[in-house]
Design goal:
The chain is of the alpha/beta class and about 550 residues long.
């Protein structure tokens, strides 16, 4: 006879879970008891939203569901931000939420929330476990759903009395792996469609990628002579130094790449959903009249044809198809060589730094990061105009090399960096964060110190919410409202926790500060003092005002 908390933890062990993230609550004390001496590492965080983002980043890194525990009411509401990231990023995640005693249900008891109603729009499945004996069944289903088709988040609510009750029930094993299912006929159909194209373009993204898939993609692109671009914040699916890599279809994409997407006569979409950001708000590729052949590979059948009608749609994980294509007989066309060379030249010109105002120039900082960090470094970020510099100028070299939310969630960079460093302690992990972005989850620097996650955080301090200020200046020029920030001394903030801190006020001081932070042996913060006039890689305040109607 085991109490429900012990049954749950034993089921996690059966599923191969090594690490969970949590903010403790009295609603799941039995689970905390089950975790005691279980061999599962419990990373205790400072905020439920950050805990859920750490679990989401763990899911991205491993391909296995990240697991997070939060308490009822406000704890679950805080965690919802991480659930949204997992949903839009197609990341396997399981959120366990403590719940009130079932005897008090429907009385608006202390911190009572209907989690089925609350999370159903965000999650693949939201349920509540009423019977202790059914815990293995629910958890098995949660792990299956989180990983099947298009991966995503699952939420299970755990009533206190269900967790404390005892039962005799066997554990269930982890989901059985499925063998690759790509057929020769499917590969031939892809090859034939590509061979008919004069201006093909490969678009990569979505879930299930790993280091081997990145190598397979490089081989496929080389043997076929195809240009490859990444969807928003998925640049690490291919070595950016590869001669066939031509850029990313992200926010503020290269106009020449945007034109190339419009002019392409065949798109091979590998794993990406081909959403609004990749298509310039559906203007570069119109769902009503795309004017090109679309070959769409996606693991979820219901994504195929959801927005764009594919000429060939295969409900398969992209890495399986890429692995098969890498060894399939190639039929490149001679005219593709110039198409690829021009696209690569456009990309190299795009990542050549354009100077921005200020003594510390973020474009130079990002280029120095690309030149200095080892190829297997992992860079994380949240959201803000500082990220436009990163996505334009940073060159990802290996998978996983970039963790960033396609949902555009601020505050993601530091939690993701901690998860990455815990999973890959021998790899260098750098978090790039704006001052507004960092302050949303900066308390997790305490978590990094507690667990020895030696991340380096580069805080881009321009004293404002830069993205909103940019749009503000375009729409209501000179009327600054609600976008100014008050900042602490970030170097002193790091030292207060026992970490390393440095402040950079001149561009020449960045590399020495970065070297000292990397050598510090613990969590570190390097603060960049940026000119608030530099809103983006190509826009100043004056230029934004000039664009105003």
């Amino acid at each position: 006879m085991r109490h429900g908390g012990q049954i749950l933890v034993d089921q996690l062990k059966a599923q191969g879970v090594r690490r969970v993230f949590s903010v403790p609550g009295e609603s799941f004390l039995a689970v905390l008891d089950g975790l005691y001496a279980s061999g599962i590492e419990n990373i205790v965080c400072r905020h439920e939203g950050a805990a859920c983002m750490m679990a989401e980043a763990h899911g991205k890194l491993t391909g296995q569901p990240g697991v997070v525990f939060v308490t009822r009411g406000p704890g679950a509401c805080n965690a919802a931000s991480g659930v949204h990231v997992a949903r839009q990023d197609s990341t396997p995640l399981i959120l366990f939420v403590g719940q009130i005693d079932t005897a008090h249900r429907d009385r608006e008891a202390f911190q009572e929330v209907d989690y089925r109603a609350f999370f159903t729009p965000l999650a693949k499945w939201a349920a509540e476990v009423d019977e202790t004996t059914r815990l293995p069944e629910y958890i098995s289903r949660a792990f299956h759903l989180a990983q099947s088709g298009r991966p995503g988040p699952v939420v299970l609510a755990l009533p206190e009395n269900m967790l404390s009750a005892r039962a005799d029930v066997p554990d269930l094993p982890a989901p059985a792996p499925h063998p690759p299912s790509v057929t020769g006929a499917q590969l031939d159909a892809i090859a034939q469609a590509l061979a008919r194209a004069a201006r093909p373009l490969v678009i990569i993204g979505g879930p299930h990628w790993n280091a081997q898939a990145a190598r397979d993609l490089a081989q496929f692109a080389r043997s076929w002579g195809l240009p490859v671009c990444a969807s928003f914040r998925r640049m690490d699916r291919m070595d950016n130094a590869h001669p066939n890599y031509v850029g990313d279809l992200g926010v503020g994409m290269n106009p020449k790449l945007a034109k190339r997407l419009r002019d392409a006569d065949c798109l091979l979409v590998l794993g990406a959903r081909l959403g609004d950001i990749a298509t310039g708000g559906y203007t570069l590729v119109d769902p009503a009249a795309p004017g090109k052949t679309i070959l769409h590979i996606h693991p979820a059948p219901d994504e195929l044809g959801r927005v764009f009608r594919p000429d060939l749609g295969l409900a398969l994980p992209a890495p399986e198809v890429v692995a098969a294509l890498a060894t399939h007989p190639a039929h490149p066309r001679a005219e593709w060589a110039g198409w690829v060379a021009d696209a690569r030249a456009d990309y190299l010109d795009w990542i050549t730094p354009r100077e921005t105002p200020g003594a510390v120039k973020l474009e130079q900082v990002i280029c120095q990061l690309s030149d200095t960090l080892p190829p297997d470094a992992i860079v994380t970020n949240g959201a803000g105009n500082y990220a436009a510099f990163l996505h334009r100028y940073f060159r990802a070299r290996a998978f996983p090399g970039l963790l960033a939310p396609t949902s555009g969630s601020m505050g993601y960079g530091l939690p993701a960096a901690i998860a990455a460093k815990l999973e890959h302690p021998a790899r260098e992990v750098i978090c790039l964060a704006g001052d507004g972005c960092f302050q949303m989850t900066c308390a997790e620097f305490s978590t990094a110190c507690q667990y020895g996650a030696a991340v380096v955080v580069i805080v881009c301090n321009n004293g404002q919410y830069g993205t909103i200020r940019m749009h503000q200046e375009k729409t209501y020029p000179g009327r600054v409202s609600g976008t100014a920030l008050f900042n602490p001394d970030y170097a002193a903030f790091a030292r207060a926790y026992g970490g390393f801190g440095a402040r950079v006020e001149r561009g020449a001081d960045f590399l020495p500060a970065l070297a000292a932070a990397r050598a510090a042996g613990g969590p570190a913060i390097v603060e960049l003092c940026l000119d608030p006039d530099a809103l983006s890689p190509a826009l100043t305040v004056a230029a934004a005002r000039a664009l105003a109607p």
